[in-house]
Design a protein that fits this description.
174 residues, alpha+beta, six-stranded antiparallel beta sheet, three-stranded antiparallel beta sheet, globular
Length: 174
């Protein structure tokens, strides 16, 4: 098994083209606190995606803006897949939908990518505001095609949310 997802650069290009990027959020051993935004910023965005690691989405900061500031505007809301057919067994390793967004013809939101040995997991961690999350598994041969066709940045307005997003948000929630 390869240590890194072989199409890392293509996936990064697709995500970066939407004004967002990914940071390695994999917990380090012997660490009893989440990675801070300052640490993410110091380490920089991921350039290759390692199997067994998970990555958090954040907007690419504009000039003069810190990563924390760029993220605080969105609170992670934006990355989504607009799935038209959830029955494609060649594409989906699994789909668990707990929101009704998909059934109302809206994109499925997420804030993390997890690179498992068998497939890419697309999800959001549990929070007090959202104790359950939609989870998608995408077979590796279909990841690039899926992101090219279905990935986009959704707006809060599409979900009846008005900016700024009012929910209380802490880093450990994401």
């Amino acid at each position: 098994m390869e240590r890194f997802y072989p199409e890392s650069s293509k996936l990064k290009e697709i995500i970066d083209s939407q004004g967002w990027t990914l940071f390695d959020a994999t917990p380090k051993r012997k660490r009893n606190r989440p990675i801070s935004w300052d640490e993410f910023e110091k380490n920089g965005p991921a350039t290759k995606f390692e199997i067994g690691h998970n990555y958090i989405f954040a907007r690419i900061p504009i000039k003069g803006q810190t990563l924390r500031q760029a993220y605080s505007v969105t609170k992670g809301l934006g990355p989504s897949l607009f799935i038209e057919d959830g029955t494609d067994a060649d594409r989906w390793a699994g789909i668990e939908l707990v929101t009704d967004f998909y059934f109302r013809g809206k994109p499925i939101l997420f804030s993390r990518l997890g690179f498992t040995p068998e497939f890419l997991a697309v999800f959001s961690p549990k929070t007090r505001e959202m104790p359950d999350s939609d989870i998608l598994g995408i077979w590796y041969p279909k990841v690039i095609d899926t992101f090219e066709k279905y990935f986009r940045i959704a707006t809060p307005k599409e979900y009846g949310i008005h900016s700024p997003i009012r929910m209380v948000h802490r880093l450990e929630d994401n």
